[in-house]
Write a structure and sequence with these properties.
The protein has about 290 residues and is α/β, with parallel strands linked by helices. It has two domains: about 150 residues, Periplasmic binding protein-like II (D-Maltodextrin-Binding Protein, domain 2); about 90 residues, D-Maltodextrin-Binding Protein, domain 2. The strands form three sheets. The protein has a five-stranded mixed beta sheet with strand order 7-6-8-5-9. A three-stranded antiparallel beta sheet has the order 3-10-4, sandwiched between helices. Strands 1-2 form a two-stranded parallel ribbon. Helix 2 links the parallel strand 1 and strand 2. Helix 2 packs across helix 13, helix 2 packs across helix 15 and helix 4 packs across helix 5. It is globular and about 55 Å long. The N terminus is likely disordered.
Length: about 290
């Protein structure tokens, strides 16, 4: 009898512990990759969903790179995360580079539907990759374009995320298209790259076009004169089963569609990276300033 009583107690405790770790009912999980812009987008989506629906949002920021975030969505560990059209086209779907923004969006949207994942309206900005260096160094070396840089690359170091250095739409493709062959490549955390080039630890970095530190640190983005990089328009991706269960999410998130251009996104990024504001606060205040939430 005692053994049965003990067994019942253990089972009750186990069920209680499982309940504590379970996802809250009517809670949506939003994740993001491991850098500032993604975190801001995460909280923009969280706030507008909670303001416009009766749903609660759990957040999983800084999951890691593209591979981690995309697999978390496919497995159902998260319901939504922000992705970029060019990244989806090249890195995830392994398609050929396309340059027309609408054609890229339509292509990834169609192919993702086969995986029961839905692309909603893009936020509006194009955070394409760019190669950036100190403005004074670029002027000293007479560098304006990627082709100019390629000619001098053997004397220079480049820093970038490990993902960028290993991707076909990153450094590997640049080597083939432009003939770039840097003296050294250094894998770096995305939050450290800009300081590294500013402080002369590397000569060039793979920057993001909407990063506020480009202007703040007096950096110069070189021109992609062969149009190597595809468009990288950011948009929410949501699981179809989540959308079926909570269709009101689409209307809520689509209110963000087209609201952020490159300059606005750069300003929000700068508030976090340079002014050291909290990403959640920055997102919340911007939504209020735009009249999207009260």
């Amino acid at each position: 009898m005692k053994k049965i009583l003990v067994l019942v107690l253990v089972m009750m405790m186990t069920m209680s512990m499982m309940g504590c770790g379970a996802k809250e009912e009517d809670a949506i999980v939003i994740g993001c990759k491991n850098y500032t812009e993604q975190e801001i987008l995460l909280y923009l989506m969280k706030d507008i969903i909670e303001a416009k629906t009766d749903l609660t949002v759990e957040t999983k920021p800084y999951l890691g790179g593209t591979d981690v975030a995309s697999k978390a969505l496919e497995k159902g560990d998260i319901d939504i995360y922000p992705e970029y059209t060019g990244t989806a086209l090249i890195a995830i779907l392994q398609q050929e580079v396309m340059s027309d923004p609408q054609a890229v969006y339509d292509k990834v949207k169609e192919m993702y539907e086969e995986k029961n994942l839905v692309w909603l309206k893009p936020f509006g900005f194009n955070n394409t990759y760019t190669l950036t260096m100190r403005a004074d160094r670029a002027e000293e070396m007479g560098l304006e374009t990627f082709s100019d840089l390629a000619e001098k690359s053997s004397d220079l170091d480049i820093g970038g995320t490990q993902e960028f250095l290993e991707r076909e739409d990153g450094y590997l493709g640049l080597k083939e298209t432009y003939g770039m062959d840097f003296k050294d490549t250094k894998g770096m955390d995305p939050g450290l790259m800009y300081t590294a080039v500013k402080e002369k630890q590397v000569d060039v970095i793979s920057a993001f076009a909407t990063d506020g530190r480009i202007i703040a640190f007096n950096l110069k983005s070189l021109k992609d004169d062969k149009n190597f990089f595809p468009p990288y328009y950011a948009a929410p991706i949501i699981r179809q089963d989540t959308l079926d269960a909570y269709p009101e999410i689409e209307e809520a998130l689509n209110q963000l569609g087209g609201k952020l251009d490159d300059a606005k996104m750069g300003q929000l990024n700068a508030q976090v990276d340079l002014e050291k504001k909290d990403a959640e606060d920055v997102a919340h205040e911007w939504l209020k300033s735009e009249g999207l939430i009260n």
